[in-house]
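Troubleshooting entry. The earlier prediction with adenosine-5'-triphosphate gave an output that would not parse, so I re-checked the input for stray whitespace and re-submitted. Clean input:
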Amino acid sequence: MPDVITLGEPLVEFIDKHKRGAFTELSEFIGPFPSGAPAIFADAVARLKVSSALIGVVGKDEFGTLLLDRLRNDGVDISHIRIAENYTTGTAFVTYSPSGSRKFIFHLRHAAAGQLSPRDADEEFIKSAKVLHIMGSALSLSQSSKEACYKALEIAVEYGIKISLDPNVRPELLSVEEIRRICKPVLEKAYLVLPSGEEAMMLTGGKSPDEACRMLIDMGVKMVALKRGAEGSTIYTEEKVLPIPAFKVEEIEPTGAGDIYDGAFIVGLINEWPLNRVGLFANAAGAISVTRVGPIDSCPYLEEVEKLISTRLL
Ligand code: ATP
Ligand code: MG
């Protein structure tokens, strides 16, 4: 049985080759890349040699085959990815502007991914995990997907499984009030939260990322890992605030770095490493991923991350 389980949207992604920054003019897209935050997360955990599973839904089409093949080949437990006969696999188009901002168009809610429902959250499967990772994207995917996450949450609480939350809800999709509302039940039970600065402020109303992360700790979260892009990350606990310096790399394509950071961080916790090593390991995994194209394709392997952090741990 897998140690780490997450739920949510497997999808294939198409990336604008010309960085138009808008979808209103002709461009060229490369893809399909296997993607979706929970799928990236599960793949990252597996490549870092901790057992993982994704609970989700794909369509009965070749995009679904592509996703299942990739996840299976990387060692992710796909036994709880359902194939929905009457739906097509979720898709996303992404365009970056030269300034680095990005836009997405998703086809998820009415695709196979959005059909995730409480019946997919199998108690027998989830109860022996060590960590249940819940992502804002899965909470905001559809009503039934949100209910699936809440059911998994209940199972985790019942069996004493650690709960982690990445509140990666896109503010274009939901209002701040709605984001707070859907994350609240998870936040109340979370051991670990892994937000970006903006997400932390959105969740708490804190005026700075630092204030927001301290508010999360005051609310009872045991650990916060604040993701700060090229600046690295900062770990908050009740006892301390631990800034973790970034690795200097050339950023090619950042999508997925946050999900890969989540996976690496949880791998570190499961391996019971000291916090500083957990943070460095996660920073290194995130840094390696931005030097490569393709969300899942860019997930680093254990040896690569170990090699990069060895330069800092001498
Ligand atoms: P996303 O939602 O796009 O996946 P995020 O905002 O959740 O991203 P980031 O902070 O962008 O997450 O990236 C996660 C981690 O990866 C950072 O905390 C950092 O450790 C590492 N990282 C990301 N970008 C860079 C970079 N340009 N240089 C070095 N490290 C980086
Ligand atoms: Mg993120």
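This one parsed fine. The mean pLDDT is 96.
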